[in-house]
Amino acid sequence: MSNQETVVSALERRIDMSVPLAEIDKDVDARLKKMARTVKMPGFRPGKVPFRMVAQTYGPQARSEAIGAAVERVLGEQIRALNVRVAGYPNIEPKEAAGSEALEFTAVFEVYPDVVIADVSGQEVERPQLEVTDAEVDKTLDVLRKQRTTFVQAERAAQDGDRVVVDFTGRKDGVEFEGGKATDFAFVIGGGQMLKDFETATLGLSAGESKTFDMTFPADYHAANLAGQTVQFDVAVKKVEAPQLPEVDAEFAKSLGIADGDVTKMREEVKANLEREVKRRIQAKIKERVMNVLIETHPIEVPKALVAQESQTLAENAKRDFEARGMQTKDLPIDASWFGEQAARRVKLGLIMSELVKSKELFAKPEQIRATIEDFAASYEDPSEVVGWYYSQPQRLAQAEALVIEDNVVEWVVSNAKTTDKAISFDELMGNAA
User: Fold this and answer.
1) Within 10 Å of residue 99's Cβ, how many Cβ atoms?
2) Per-residue pLDDT averaged across 377-403, rounded?
3) Residues 215 and 201: beta-carbon distance below 8 Å
4) 149-244: what fold?
5) How far apart are CA 264 and CA 344, in angstroms?
6) What is the pLDDT of residues 257-300, one digit of tens each?
7) Which of 115, 215, 340, 379 is least crowded, fewest Cβ atoms below 10 Å from its Cβ?
């Protein structure tokens, strides 16, 4: 047998190989003899079928298996001799060799890139800083109160934030259009349920009052027949209701899970939850910057095979996510190529982080995994039950281990890069900044 390696590109390799046909014929004969000991055919007892009949019936199958085994063996030997890590699956291509005494084929495959950990000391990593105070607790309680808003009837004109109940009819060129009419329709002024111009038209109207006004639909309105069109609405207000927020009292505390209604205890729990969320969001921002640093400082080429596999995984995850939301995905075309850029980034980070963990010994320690799981569990009613749930299955534990390893990588980069602390506002961190 003869073998020859060709470097096609930085990561792609091609190996030309051959296996003597005599070796394959010998293997075919051995496989058929083994089959003959147990094969069953009508009119013969097991093991008594003439070898000629066994060869005639099962010869093609035995030859296919023998060729597959020979190719796999020779390719494996050559890959081990080259001392490379194959990425994905080799593409086996038979070669034309008429009259040859050997089976010749070509194996084309990609190898993993060599990753050399770069110096990150010149890179800058910003660490957001935010202390949770009573002001942040009050803001959070205001949000929780608004989520529990009730409405009471108001004997006055409608104001921003009120809920109004109306009848309305819309006409285009004097003709009612589909979807432009409703009875006893309720919406909150300023809540975004209706177009802003429609909401504005109801301001200042009291129960029992009506109004006719013109309104132009946005150019990008979802109904093509109305997009950019000017129509006329008749609206009659039937009820005006003012918002009423719950008081921060024992009943409110109980609605948040404080059994005895202790308001002080409620504030302490809200603050503890906020501190965990603030910590999580700050870590996420630092992690995002660290991952960008790793990408910027390690300009490596990644195997196309791994990117294709990752793209397919992301597509399948997207499909499952749609299904979990109740969407039918049977006829929904989700193309793996849509995720190519994201997949390439994930593969690149995976290769860099794998080498970083190995070279800098950033493996997850049992105590780190335990601490991470206990931190997850702290916000639940029965933390011990959540901890047990993680430790009951290796797959769940592996997820926590992966998070710890990521944290170790982040910590290593932060400790070796130029870091600066920068104050960040609560609204900005929570994504509420204007």
Assistant:
1) 4
2) 90
3) yes
4) Chitinase A; domain 3 (3.10.50)
5) 50
6) 899 999 999 999 999 999 999 999 999 999 999 999 999 999 99
7) 379
